[in-house]
Amino acid sequence: MQGNEIKSYAIYILLVIYILHVALMKMNHSYEVALKKNVANIMEVQELNRLANEDITHFHYNLDTRTPPIEVLNKINFKREGDILIFENTSGGNTK
Fold this sequence. Notes:
Elements: H1 8-27, H2 29-54, H3 70-73, E1 78-81, E2 84-87
């Protein structure tokens, strides 16, 4: 294929591939599911990349409420001893 010229055999090859694809979609459930999963995975990766490029902090938040996210840990005073976080006691009861 060069420019606007298409060889006749290329048309026939594409037609055969298309007919084979349609036949497989109609008769073979696993082919259809595999094809749809692959397309969905590609679209999901593209969407996650778009979100990461817009606002990477979206992925830093941990939905597990037992673990504070990185942004919260950066705002409070704590020490780390091994795998344990020790939060400093603030005097006066007022925390800002």
